[in-house]
Amino acid sequence: MTTDASVPNPQVPREARRRRTFAVISHPDAGKSTLTEALLLHARAITSAGATHGKAGRSGTVSDWMEMEKARGISVTSAAIQFEYHDAVINLVDTPGHADFSEDTFRVLSAVDAAVMLVDAAKGLEPQTMKLFAVCKQRGLPVITVINKWDRPGDTPLALMDEIQTRTGLLPTPLNWPVGEAGDLRGVLDRRSGDFLRYTRTAGGATVAESVRLDAADAAKEEGPAWASAVEESDLLDAESQNHDSELFLDGQTTPVLFCAAVANFGVQQLLDTLVEFAPPAEARIDIDGNPRKVTSPFSGFVFKVQSGMNSAHRDHVAFVRVCSGEFRRGMIVTHAATGRPFATKYAQQLFGKERTVTDQAWPGDIVGLVNASALRVGDSIFEDERVEFPPLPLFSPEHFRAIRPVDSSKHKQFRRGIDQLDHEGVIQVMRSEVRGEQAPVLGAVGPMQFEVVEDRMVHDFHADIRMEALPYQVARKTDKESALVLAGTRQVEVFTRSDGTLLALFSTPWRLQAIAKENPKLVLIDIANAT
Ligand code: GDP
């Protein structure tokens, strides 16, 4: 197919408007996998819940596919799932649940247009949720809050609203309000229509629950005091102007709230409707010079994740690209902004967990997996015709450090290839120093579990057994050449060059860092902790 990219394609704005690209942020166990399954079920992408789950007693997995994930029950990698819902195309990008993979999550959040913050009704805002929320806030992502597990005893809804407001600074604007307290879910009051959506149990939540809608009069007859109290509390919210306002939501000042029981598929359809109605479509993206790249511009996108070894039968290397503008056509030749070299997109796929389908076409907001794209690194931009580069994805400040070497020194080639690859994928940061030598890299991680991923991947994907030795450093600071010379001769400090060229000084403790900075205030010691 040949298409002249200089002629605007009217399909582009239409398709971009249909897209809703989002991620779910939550603390482990809040119910993210269950919700993902339920969303797919509602969208009729799968026929019965359970097909996506890798956990206890259930078979198969769509969004979690690595062996390690199954073993640990946590999501190490991110997958994107696409499905249609009414006239919308939903792209759900999975985020790793564990705090150790926050860097990965940060990258995922750079590829989405909105986030769903999933909260366990009994636990409120847990630490990992807050950490991820902070990233959303920093990125200016609109956040929809979903209070899950409402079928179980938990906090009162008003207490939860208070907690959200105090801890996130967002004004909660509930779209529905529970009827019956947590643990005795009768249904919800749809605050816009005033109707009652009755909760009907389904056997194990395995099929789409039928939602029964009753008007207020019937609800009052059926639910009596529980209904009256929901209406009263909803009126209270009215009085505080806690009603949805699109502008304030998109501006990151308010968060619409829904109550649901993902395991029973209750409230899930409302979430889909909310995404379609309120979440932003794919829109212009700001480039490295601060200019918006309109969705109608020729094709462009950026790599937010690189991964290999996802399919042990085919040793491959997939670069996940978020389409920012234009039409993506499989086979098109794009330019790799970092090198200026052409790149052929012959092998483009969409990943539905383990299932892959070839993608012939994609639009702004979509996620495309480019197979065998070994030249592409995390953060790289690609474009057609009109050059554009999107801002690089920042690296976090590492807090854990290990020296690494091959067990069998004759396997040095495999070792080197493996380390380079994992560096490339952003699995771990790789640093070297003149003192230690080119052959003795040091790995830096935000969370120690990243080292386990390295170990696993080195053995299984690169056939290079490794030995790691923990290094006695706790803090890293970015420095410059001049300061590095001074620091190199200082006790309990070691200076490295990270593979992106950044000079990093590692300090044994925060106190040692403080003392050195105080002794020598002229030293350049930049805190890159929050990746800004
Ligand atoms: P994740 O770690 O966030 O992916 O959480 P999971 O989806 O694996 O859910 C953790 C546990 O909570 C599982 O045992 C689920 O069955 C359970 N769970 C999820 N949603 C609900 C819900 O709405 N109600 C109840 N009672 N349990 C739920």
UniProtKB/TrEMBL annotation:
Pfam families: EF-G_D2, GTP_EFTU, RF3_C. Keywords: Cytoplasm, GTP-binding, Nucleotide-binding, Protein biosynthesis. It comes from the Bacteria. GO terms for biological process: regulation of translational termination. The keyword Endoplasmic reticulum does not apply. GO terms for molecular function: GTP binding; GTPase activity; translation release factor activity, codon nonspecific; translation release factor activity, codon specific. It is found in: Cytoplasm. Belongs to the TRAFAC class translation factor GTPase superfamily. Classic translation factor GTPase family. PrfC subfamily. This is Peptide chain release factor 3. It comes from Cryobacterium luteum.
